[in-house]
């Protein structure tokens, strides 16, 4: 049985952004998606992810992920429902009606190789959680804090971008794992309130209210032991100044400079890393999928018990996908930014 | 029996240098040193060490070592001979005629607590080697390469300041431990020749001949896995660019900026540490004295077999101590800079 083609809208990158991306760098195009061939499934996407790292893929530079191609659909995490299965599916394999997590977002319908989709359970948490708290950002927080930064109970942790999908989870995992003190920075007073009142941070500050170094020193008068960096720039420099001896930083993102058209100033106090014996370590979540089982069990348990909170910022409609992405770079989101596709 | 006092010349810091130190920042003063009390020895220094890290101690800033005090003698590594022992020495303890390594250099005679002097054997190597290849710089190289940077056989190593006391040893230990390729930078063509012809480096370049990044990329076309940083600045930035994924840097010194009066530019490409999953780790040799036995045995063996070479730059006379120190900051030395005190 052959499935007829479907009409799908998908986002193409039509030119490479210079600095801050603009809507004109993208185009929403209508295409026909063929029915699935053997070993394929056709998925109707229900939620798609927009993430800061995607900014890097819009540049034509060699990196850990290939650049998006011009006039081709962008991609990224998505969850959806299987609407058709190609000929000769494997017994026990994916079936029509199954919910799946896969990597072909930025479009309404995706033709996915069965080996590149994972069946997910829609019952314990909303489907969109598989893009956030139980998905890639969640694992990033978990692996970055516990493995890359080697956090230990009794330490003081600072996380920047703390109201974001990754940062909010870093702070809460630190608290649940016995941190002496958890400090976060965010870009609005409302986000700071969220950190203090809902996420259980011990201290938090709005980085737009004054120099980061001074605010951090005040929020962590005993210094910090771990820094989880989502921002770079002045945040990293402040952390280096506040580090206690043998402090460790997980370098996860540097959103402060993703739109920079020339190299940004780096931490001018890096020489302090010698005397303090600091470790700065870059990370990509892709190295840590061996922790997926442990992560899902532990964090899933905390969510079920109500001990770990999360927020999502939901934008409706594929046609608003680019606007949602631009909003992330401005810090519009609280928690994971998700684009929910109209039914 | 009471030992009469001796007359000794010692170097005092008389004002804190601004930028590059000048001779006027120091004064050689003649003092009387009392005979040793109980639990003390009087040592006539034979060789004293001048090291780049001492520049930091001339500033009035909190660091891992206290600043030198104004109008007080400076201190640092020295080897000498015991000329008097205080009352009631321990059986088997230090005796007149013993050679010792201790921390009260920058002077002709030192009154040392017996617990702060270590007996050394003058037979296998020249005494001055205990200040260099078998001393603090040697252990720095050994621990920094093997423990801090986690060097493994088959990797490519880059070391800056490679003709210096630490750098020359880093490169040779890497070679002896099975590096795929050892690359060094130094500040003169003559030093580059030494690296290639005597120390067995696979490639070396004079950083004054052109931008470091380009010269490093040419010297290590397959990229580098380990960087041992004695220099900072453009060298660290070049290393970050040349790193292969999962590269590690031991941050040991940043001599390029020791005389800086304002914070120097830091590596503008630090964001590459994320995608490449780099680790930058500061070190102080003081954390690694547990490796002393293993280090002395392994490196002592290589020296005895002629497989590890070293150079010293010797300056004669305590009165030339400051000039020797200033020379280090200019890069005048090849290998360890030692001040030998006139008999």
Automatic annotation (TrEMBL), chains A, B:
<dbReference type="InterPro" id="IPR020843">
    <property type="entry name" value="ER"/>
</dbReference>
<feature type="domain" description="Enoyl reductase (ER)">
    <location>
        <begin position="21"/>
        <end position="339"/>
    </location>
</feature>
<dbReference type="Pfam" id="PF16884">
    <property type="entry name" value="ADH_N_2"/>
</dbReference>
<keyword id="KW-0560">Oxidoreductase</keyword>
<dbReference type="Pfam" id="PF00107">
    <property type="entry name" value="ADH_zinc_N"/>
</dbReference>
<protein>
    <submittedName>
        <fullName>Alcohol dehydrogenase, zinc-containing</fullName>
    </submittedName>
</protein>
<dbReference type="InterPro" id="IPR045010">
    <property type="entry name" value="MDR_fam"/>
</dbReference>
<dbReference type="GO" id="GO:0016628">
    <property type="term" value="F:oxidoreductase activity, acting on the CH-CH group of donors, NAD or NADP as acceptor"/>
</dbReference>
<dbReference type="InterPro" id="IPR011032">
    <property type="entry name" value="GroES-like_sf"/>
</dbReference>
<dbReference type="InterPro" id="IPR041694">
    <property type="entry name" value="ADH_N_2"/>
</dbReference>
<dbReference type="InterPro" id="IPR013149">
    <property type="entry name" value="ADH-like_C"/>
</dbReference>
<dbReference type="InterPro" id="IPR036291">
    <property type="entry name" value="NAD(P)-bd_dom_sf"/>
</dbReference>
């Amino acid at each position: 049985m052959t499935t007829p083609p479907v009409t799908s809208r998908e986002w193409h990158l039509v030119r490479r952004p210079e600095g801050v991306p603009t809507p004109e760098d993208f185009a929403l195009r209508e295409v026909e998606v063929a029915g699935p061939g053997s070993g394929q499934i056709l998925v109707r996407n229900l939620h798609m992810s927009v993430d800061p790292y995607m900014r890097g893929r819009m540049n034509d530079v060699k990196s850990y992920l290939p650049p998006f191609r011009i006039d081709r659909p962008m991609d990224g995490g998505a969850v959806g429902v299987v609407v058709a299965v190609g000929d000769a599916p494997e017994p026990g394999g994916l079936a029509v009606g199954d919910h799946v997590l896969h990597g072909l977002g930025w479009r309404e319908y995706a033709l996915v190789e069965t080996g590149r989709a994972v069946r997910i359970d829609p019952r314990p948490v909303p489907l969109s959680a598989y893009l956030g708290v139980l998905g890639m950002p969640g694992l990033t927080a978990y692996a970055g804090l516990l493995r890359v930064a080697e956090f230990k109970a009794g330490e003081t942790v600072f996380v920047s971008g703390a109201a974001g999908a990754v940062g909010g989870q870093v702070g809460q995992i630190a608290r649940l794992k016995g941190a002496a003190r958890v400090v976060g920075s965010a870009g609005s007073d409302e986000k700071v309130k969220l950190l203090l009142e809902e996420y259980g941070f011990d201290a938090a500050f709005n980085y737009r209210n004054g120099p980061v170094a001074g605010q951090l020193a005040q929020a962590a008068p005993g210094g910090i032991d771990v820094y989880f960096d989502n921002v770079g720039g002045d945040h990293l420099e402040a952390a280096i100044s506040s580090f206690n001896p043998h402090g460790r930083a997980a370098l996860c993102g540097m959103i402060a400079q993703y739109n920079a058209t020339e190299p940004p100033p780096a931490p001018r106090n890096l020489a302090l890393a010698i005397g303090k014996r600091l470790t700065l370590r870059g990370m990509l979540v892709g190295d840590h999928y061996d922790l997926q089982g442990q992560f899902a069990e532990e964090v899933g348990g905390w969510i079920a018990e109500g001990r770990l909170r999360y927020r999502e910022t939901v934008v409706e409609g594929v046609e608003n996908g680019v606007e949602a992405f631009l909003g992330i770079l401005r810090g519009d989101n609280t928690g994971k930014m998700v684009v929910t596709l109209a039914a």
